[in-house]
Input
Amino acid sequence: MQYDDLYEDELLAAEEDLSRRVSTGLHGLDQLIDELRLGDNVVWNVDSLLEYNKIVKYYVKQALLDNRHLVYIRFGDHDPLLHDPRIPTYHLDASKGFEAFTSQLCNLIKREGPETFYVFDCLTELLKFWYSDLTIGNFFWVICPYLYRMDTIAYFSLIKDSHSDVTIDRIRETTQLSVDLFHSGGALFVHPKKVMGRHSKNMFLPHRLNLVKDKAQALTSSSELAPIYSRFHINENTADYWDMTFHEAYIRLSGSYKEQENAKELLVRLLLSDEDRMYDLCCRYFNLRDLLNIKYREIGTGRIGEKSLGMLLARKILITEGGNQFDYNIEAHDSFYVGVDVYYTYIVHNNCWFLHMRQKQKEHYFRCGEELQDRILHGKFPLYFKRQFVRVLEHFGQSPIIVRSSSLLEDSFGNAFAGKYDSVFLSNQGTPEERLEAFENAIKHVYASMMNHDALAYRMNRNLYDKDEQMALLIQRVSGDTYGKYFFPHLAGVGNSKNMYVWNKDMDIDAGMIRLVFGLGTRAVDRIINDYPRIVCLDHPGDWPLVTFGDEKKFSQHYIDVLDLEKAQTSYITLKDMMNLDIKADASLFAETDQTAMRWLRETGRKGPVPHILSFRKLLTKTDFPATMQTMLKTLSKTYNYPVDIEFTVNFSPDGDYKINILQCRPQQVKGIGRKVEIPLLTSMDKCIFYTEGNFMGGNVTYPIDYVIYVKPKEYLALSEPDRYGVARAIGDLNQALKEDYSLLIGPGRWGTSTTALGVPVNFSDICNMNAICEVSYQALNLMPELSYGSHFFQDLVETDIFYIALFHGHRNVIFNEPFILEQPNEKASITDDKYEDVIKVIHLNDMELYSDTISQRAVCMKKPGTEV
Output
C-alpha cells in the first residue's frame, strides 16, 4: 500500500498556495527542499541527536517568530530537546504500550488542533519500551497521516542503523520528507532521500550545510562524494530490534547464572506476562533456553497471549513437579505463535486504526464493531508476514492444524472469555496456494471474532469495552490420527480441579471432574442438541450422573466430531460409523454393547449390527486414566495456588498406552467455596418455589430473590419459531430492566439452545444480569435440562456469578411449586411491556431467599423463616 496516493491530490491542489509554505528557519535548507508545506512530516536520519538538536533549534526559533503554536512531545530517556517555557511540553508514557501511547497522542493532536507545529523526541527511544521495530512502524503509519490531515508540521528523528529495513521502508513510504543528516570531516551534511511533491535539479544530492553562513552547497564532484560515502553500506538489515534483543539473550546462555536470570526476567515480560502471579510462575518454571525456543517459533513480535502461555506453563509444571510420573503420558506439542503486534500491524496496514479506536467508545461500541469485523475479514496481510506463514505451512506439511485465539485478556485470572473468540480447524489439504489462502482466512476469522456480538457484550458486561485487548494466536498441530478419510483424537475434554457439580454426599469437590467426548473436543465445550458428553467425577469415575438403568443411551454421545480430509472441513460421524473404522486402539475402552437394544433385537427377532453406547466404562473403571487426570489437575491447582481448568486430548496405542495432550490451562472461576450456609427447615410448600438435592452449580450461597421470571412450557411450545425468538428477546429486555434487582429465571428445557423445541434460544447477554437461572424438565414435552458443567456456557455462568439449578420432575427429593408462581399477579407489563405476557410470568416477591449447601447437596428457594406468605 502506498500512502503517497493518499496525499497526491491534496498536494497538487495546494501547489500554488503560498500560505501553506513554511520555513525551516534555515534559508539554505529552504532553498534545497523548496521550503516546507503545511502537512509535512519530516524524518531526520541522524548519527546522533547532536545533529538533530541543531536543526530543531532553527525550526523552533522560526516557528516562534511566525507566532506558530508549537508543541514538544516528550517520551524518551535522552536529554530534552527543548527547554523554552513558552513551548508546551507533553510527557507521554510509552511504557504503557503501543495502543495506549498512540491513542493518547491522537487525542492530544486532535485537542491541539490544525496547523500546530510539533517536535518529537527521537523515535528510536521507543525501542527501549516496545522492543519492536514493527511496532514503531505501526506507530508512524498511524500518526503521520493524521498529522498530515491536520495541516501540521512535525519533526521526527531516527538513529541510523538502529532499525530494520522493513521499518525504515514503512516510515519512508509514509512521511513527506526523509532527510539524512550527518557529520563528516568536521562538516555537517544534509541529504534529502524523499521530498514529496517537490523536485529540483540538485534536490536529492548531498549538500554541505553551513549553519553560520546559512547556506547549503550541493556536492557534485566524485572526488568530494567518494571519501564521504565510501564509509556507508547498503547491506540489508532484516533483523527487528526484537530479534536482536533475543540474540543478546542467547549470548547470555554462556554467561553467569545472574546474567541468565536477568535475561530470562526480561524475556518473560516481553514474551509471556508481567501480571504478578503469572510472572512469578513463569520465572519459576521456565529457563532461558525455554524462552528462546518459544521465540524461535513466533511469527512477528510481542507477547504470545494467555492461551499459549497457559498451555506451555502447564506442561512445564507437570514435567517439573511430576518427576517421571508424566514423562511418558504427556504428548509433545508442535505449536507456533503469532505475536500480538501482528494484529496491530494488520489493523494499521488495512487503515482500520481510527475505526478501531472509535469502536472503543461506548456510543459507537456495537455499531463500529460490525463495521470493523467486516473490514478485518476483507483485509490483506503485508508480504513479510505472508512469507512467514508459508514457512509455518511448509513445516506442518499436510497435517491438520488449528488456529486458536490467544488474547492478552482471555484465560487470565477473572476473565476466561470461554468460547467468546473463535478457533478454526484447517484440514490443510490442497495446493500450497490453497492452503495459504485458507490459513490467512482462518487468521482473519479469529481476529474478526473479537467483534462478535457475544464477545463485545462479554467485554461490555465486565467493563472491559475500552481496554487494550490484544490478540495473539496459537497455531497447533491437531492432536489425533487419520482413520480412513477422517482425522480425530480418540478422546477430548475439559478438566476442572474443583468439581462444582457433585450429585451425592460421598463425592469430594477437590477430586476434580472431566467432561469427556470421543473425537474432536467441540462437543466437550459446547451444548449440543440431543447429545451428551460424559461427565466424570474423578473420585467416582464409574458413576453416571442422573441416569437410571435403561437411559444410558439417551444421555450419551451419539455423534463424533471429525475433520473430513477429503472435503477439507469439520464434520461429524455416527457412533456406528466410528465402530466400522480401524481406530488403531481397543474400541471397548470407549464403547460397550447396548444391552437394552440387543434385548429388543432378540425379542423382536430382528437382525442388524451390534448396537453400542459411548459409555467409556472400561476406560474409567479398568485403567489408571482417571487417576492420572486427577493427579494432573491436583498438581496444576497446587502450583497455581488456585483452581484450574484444562482442555486436553488423549490418543491411545493398540496395546492400551495413551498420551495426554494439554491444549490449554487457565484459572478456574469458582464461587461460594468454603462458605458455610445453614439451610432453614422447610415446613410448608406454600413458602417454597423449589427444593432439590443435587443438580445445582454455584457453591454455597444465600441471597434474596426479588423477582421470579417464569416461561410457561406449553404456552411457549405453542408459539411459532419467530415468536419463540421473540420470547428470548423479551427475556433480554427484562434482564436489562431488572439488573439492579435480585432475579431468578425459570424456564423449560435448556436456556441458550439454538433449537427452540428444546428451550428458549437466549444469547448469554440476554440473561447476564440474572442472579440464578433454573432449567426445568418436562419429559412429556421432550424438554430436558443439560448439566453443562465444564462447557463454555457454564464458564459464563460462573464468571457472572449466576447460580444454576436443574429441576427434574419426578426425581426423588425434587420439588417445583409451579402453582405458587402462577397464582401471583403478573408484573411484566409494568416492568417492560405486555408482549408475550401469556407466556412470560414475572412475579415480585418479598422475603424470598435462595439457599444452597454443597456439603449436604441441597438447594432451596423459600420464604425467610418468620415471614408471612
User: Anything to note?
Assistant: Residues 207 and 217 are 5 Å apart (CA to CA). The longest strand covers residues 840-853.
